[in-house]
Design a protein that fits this description.
The protein is α/β, with parallel strands linked by helices and 354 residues long. It has helices at residues 48-56, 62-86, 119-124, 134-138, 148-154, 187-196, 206-210, 215-222, 225-228, 237-249, 255-273, 291-300, 311-330, 338-341; strands at residues 5-13, 20-30, 33-44, 94-97, 100-105, 110-114, 128-130, 160-164, 167-174, 177-185, 279-284, 304-307, 351-353. It is globular, with a radius of gyration of 19 Å. The relative contact order is 0.17.
């Protein structure tokens, strides 16, 4: 008889580098339906040193990456232990952790999320389910996005679920299949230019709003090959570093104009990505706080109802869903959809330690 109640922690670190998200969640199955309650949750910010290391790691040698992985596993373990002690959390079924993506090259059969070494279980004194992307890439998939099965199980009342994080991604049902893919870079680019102004991010899009759209740059961005590709497809920081930033930097315009043009690009590509321009869309992730970006998405999708949920859901939805992926792995049930990733088959991804 399988359990019907689970007490877990979901742990997520995204490409926007705002920190490690931790969410303590109770899941329960009633009448074959999953229900959840997000309890304590917090984001633990990275130090400047860690931000610089994680930004630079895409260029590290194999040996340096191995050292980084060990150090990051130690850091992540300490953050998890502190969270458990601070909130006096007892009797956990598992800690379900995504780790932090450093390299994502599914076209080369490779993806690397650090912080998923087996020692994490010993260091936290907990059962840990982690490293969810590797299996999918080994099965010929993109290893991303993985959130859509959670969208299907927990948020089927919305026509679309979209996350605006380091990158944007969307998921929806089409012909009884869950379809999902990355749309475009978001905060990986916007934060890069906000950083140049000495800011962590462009609060509410206020700076972007003061800029002007540079039409040649806008057109150049929209012509990128990625946008012409059919799904399944996914993005990594390499795409931003090697493709997007060099294009933007080739234009001698102000940072305000770069932010304004890229915000318009995000909104334009968002609307283009959705097969139907009507219905309801649940928007989560840090980009949902960017009021100007949201207003530009509304401009391109006037008949779509945009729903931005309460703070816990907005900020911790990915941690919530990785917690669910971990539970599905513990139950040996499918947690990765081939219709989304392009893998050879649906499967149950991740490693369980110990």
């Amino acid at each position: 008889m399988k359990k019907v109640f689970y007490n877990v922690i979901g742990v997520m670190s995204g490409t926007s580098l705002d920190g490690v998200d931790l969410a303590h969640i109770h899941f329960e199955i009633k009448n074959n339906q999953w229900h959840f309650k997000i309890l304590e949750c917090e984001t633990v910010a990275y130090s400047n040193d860690w931000i610089n290391q994680l930004k630079s790691a895409v260029d590290f040698s194999t040996k340096t990456l191995e050292k980084l992985n060990r150090n990051y596993t130690q850091l992540l373990s300490e953050i998890i232990v502190d969270f458990i002690e601070k909130h006096q959390i007892k009797d956990l079924d598992a800690v379900c952790s995504h780790g932090h993506t450093i390299l994502h090259q599914p076209q080369n059969g490779f993806t690397l999320q650090i912080g998923n070494l087996p020692e994490i279980a010993t260091l936290t004194h907990q059962k840990v389910v982690c490293d969810f992307r590797v299996h999918d890439v080994q099965l010929g998939g993109q290893g991303a996005p993985l959130v859509p099965i959670g969208d299907r199980i927990l948020f089927s009342n919305y026509d679309y679920c979209m996350n605006l994080g380091g990158f944007s991604n969307v998921s929806f049902e089409e012909n009884n299949q869950r379809i999902a893919f990355d749309i475009s870079p978001v905060n990986t680019v916007l934060n890069f230019y906000a950083n140049q102004l000495g800011l962590n991010y462009d609060d509410k899009g206020i700076i972007s709003k003061t800029g002007k759209i540079n039409n040649p740059l806008f057109e150049a961005l929209n012509q990128l090959d990625f946008y012409q590709q059919q799904h399944p497809k996914s993005l990594g920081f390499e795409f931003v570093k090697e493709t997007v930033l060099p294009i933007i930097e080739s234009y001698a315009i102000s940072i305000e104009d770069k932010l304004r043009t890229f915000t318009e690009h995000i909104a334009f590509q968002t609307a283009l990505a959705l097969p139907s321009k009507r219905g309801s869309i649940l928007i989560t992730g840090g980009g949902a706080y960017n009021d100007f970006l949201i207003s530009r998405i509304e401009h391109y999708l006037p008949e779509m109802k945009l729903i931005i949920p309460e703070k816990k859901m907005l900020e911790y939805k990915e941690a919530l869903i990785f917690a669910l992926l971990g539970i599905l792995k513990l139950r040996n049930e499918i947690n990765t959809l081939s219709s989304v990733t392009g893998a050879q088959k649906d499967h149950s991804a991740g490693y369980i330690y110990p």
